[in-house]
Specification:
Layout: E1 4-12, E2 15-22, E3 25-29, E4 31-36, H1 46-51, E5 56-59, H2 61-66, H3 70-75, H4 78-83, E6 88-91, H5 95-100, E7 103-107, E8 112-115, E9 122-125, H6 127-137, E10 141-143, H7 155-175, E11 183-188, H8 194-206, E12 212-214, H9 223-233, E13 243-245, H10 251-260, E14 264-267, H11 269-275, E15 278-281, E16 284-287, H12 307-311, H13 314-322, H14 327-352, H15 356-362
Parallel strand pairs: 4-5, 4-14, 5-6, 6-10, 10-11, 11-12, 12-13, 13-14
Antiparallel strand pairs: 1-2, 2-3, 7-8, 8-9, 15-16
Helix pairs in contact: 6-7, 7-8, 9-10, 11-14, 13-14, 14-15
Length: about 375
């Protein structure tokens, strides 16, 4: 069995529906992957996570490298045993967190030297080191180490980042020790510049990766900028390989990505917002700390089949948050992840039935974006 096989089973315009098969199970695309940054999707047991419809989840190389260390994870049976998750897992390269979280000491063509945000210890992350860590963690899909500059970085900085991303992609391919059971994806960078994006995509495709990601979006370029890049670069990527939009996020962003031909998504938003009493619904955002919900006997969202909606009222969940009870964040995280999985299931169905454009036009979830653009039920 190959490390990854990918089959397209339907199209509607540029949007695609498919199935990816890994050694630890398969997942349907377009797919949303909940994020288990430090080896756990915060607040949710693996069997609870499975009830949401999640089939593939993500873990973070940077965090697991620093704590508990990739060798500890490997000694405990690799990431699948460590997380208690028998299905497919993807690990990112650590590049985004190095550039966004760490106290960077030096960036060079070799890699990044930085201070740990945990204890201040010094570390170096290079393409070879990223591969060493991800090979030890044992995820089914791993990512090439790349440089992800801010969305508003000047063009010369974007050019340097693309050159490094391409050089590091080659070095990752050379350092990857488990190609038979781990699939290495390349990452297209280039900011909002079409020339850079096209050049990066072309050179990465020449390296023949089993999948390709679009990185460097949702980092300050704005919604219109993201849409422009997706419309431009996604059709360039191979038709027969999975396409992954990294770290994006709001339902409307996912719908736009699917419309451009993206197959995979991830974001911390469902669980992070759930821990902060923010619930996604098709009608808008519920801020359940608000006093107006104190005696509200309705479920979080009518028609939702998640455990939280079937067993608890808005008023009860508000009380759990007010009292500092763990159950409040758990229930909203569970609901939000299920909200995203229901969205993905409905998107896949619409594509298969050749009515994706109608879905985008008529389903209110297609317009759910940041709070300032969202009609909030407060």
């Amino acid at each position: 069995m190959r490390a990854l096989s990918f089959e397209l089973v339907g199209h509607d315009g540029k949007s695609r529906v498919g199935r990816a098969v890994t050694r630890h199970g398969e997942f349907d695309t377009p797919a949303f992957m909940p994020v288990g940054t430090q080896g756990t999707v915060k607040g949710l047991m693996p069997d609870q996570l499975a009830t949401t419809g999640a089939q593939c989840i993500l873990a973070n190389t940077y965090h697991l490298m620093l704590r508990p260390g990739e060798r500890v994870v490997a000694e405990l049976g690799d990431l699948h045993a460590f997380m208690g998750w028998p299905g497919a897992i993807l690990t990112d390269s650590g590049g985004f967190q190095v550039f966004s979280l760490a106290d960077i000491n030096q960036i060079s063509n070799d890699g990044v030297t930085f201070k740990s945000h945990i204890d201040g210890s010094m570390h170096q992350l290079t393409p070879a080191r990223s591969m060493e860590v991800q090979n030890a963690l044992g995820a089914d899909i791993i990512m090439a180490f790349d440089q992800c500059p801010p969305g508003d970085a000047p063009l010369p900085d974007q050019e340097v980042a693309v050159r490094r991303t391409l050089d590091w992609a080659e070095k990752c391919r050379a350092a990857h020790q488990r190609p038979d059971d781990q699939s290495l994806f390349g990452i297209v960078q280039g900011g909002t510049d079409h020339r850079l994006r096209a050049m990066c995509a072309e050179k990465l495709m020449g390296m023949d990766f089993p999948g390709y990601a679009v990185g460097g979006l949702a980092v300050g370029e704005g919604f219109e900028g993201m849409c422009d890049v997706l419309d431009f670069v996604t059709p360039m990527l191979p038709e027969d390989r999975p396409r992954y939009l990294m770290g994006v996020g709001f339902p409307r962003d996912i719908v736009v990505g699917v419309a451009a031909g993206i197959d995979m998504f991830d974001c911390v938003m469902p669980t992070r917002n759930g821990r902060n009493a923010y619930a996604f619904t098709a009608e808008g955002a519920l801020r359940l700390r608000n006093s107006r919900f104190a005696s509200d006997n309705l479920p979080i969202e009518s028609g939702c089949d998640c455990y939280a909606c079937e067993k608890f009222s808005r008023g009860a969940i508000r009380h759990f948050f007010s009292a500092g009870e763990m159950l409040g964040p758990i229930l909203l995280s569970l609901h939000n992840v299920r909200f995203y999985q229901r969205l993905m299931g409905d998107i896949r169905r619409a594509i298969r039935e050749q009515r994706f454009e109608e879905f985008v036009r008529n389903d209110p979830r297609s317009r759910l974006g940041p709070a300032e653009n969202l009609e909030e039920i407060v």
